[in-house]
Amino acid sequence: MNNKTLIDNLRCIPDFPKKGINFRDVTTLYKNAECMKIMLDEMEELYKDKGITKIVGVESRGFVMAAALAGRLGCGVVLARKPGKLPATVIKESFSKEYGVDTIEMHMDSIDSNDVVLIHDDLLATGGTAKAAYDLVQHFKPKKVYMNFIIEITDEGLHGRDLFKGIDLTTLVTV
């Protein structure tokens, strides 16, 4: 895909959140109405005929496009959140990131075996967060799982995609 408008509006912040990491800031795409339309149109085209019943938005930047796309596809949204943010009974998964360890949680009643699930997050780098979200979703044994990211980082020797062999995974921008 690699739409030029998206690439031109993507901000890179060196040494954030720690030295040696080049943070790709998706918020510059969210604040631009043209970028939002491009991203939403591309994602709708990718998933309109897949029978998606739930979109899992991953904390917190994944919530934005998950909710917008769910409106277009006519499906529900499930939140994968940091610990302590969800009020009902949860299932959790811990994972390593390029700069630490974290945990995400989902409500136990979020997904069932009849669902077709799209997991969406803003960024695929090492794949730790995405793998945790995927593992959480697999606990529910849905019919099918798709994965989508706005940005995939490969230019820094990161190979997060390698964790998802055989899984339908798409990205809008690769850097």
Reading the helices and strands in chain order gives HEEHHEHEEEEHEE
Average pLDDT across residues? 94
For the secondary structure, the number of strands is 9
Termini separation comes to: 11 Å
Rg is 15 Å
Percentage of residues in DSSP E strands: 25-35%
Q: Describe the strand arrangement of the main beta sheet, using strand numbers.
A: 4-3-7-8-9
In summary, what is this structure?
The chain has five helices and nine strands; from the N terminus they run αββααβαββββαββ.
Question: What does this entry look like structurally?
Answer:
This protein is α/β, with parallel strands linked by helices and 175 residues long. Helices cover 27% and strands 34% of the residues. It has five helices and nine strands; from the N terminus they run αββααβαββββαββ. It has helices at 4-9, 27-30, 33-47, 62-73, 128-138, and strands at 11-14, 22-25, 54-58, 76-80, 90-97, 100-107, 116-124, 144-152, 168-174. α5 (128-138) links the parallel β7 (116-124) and β8 (144-152).
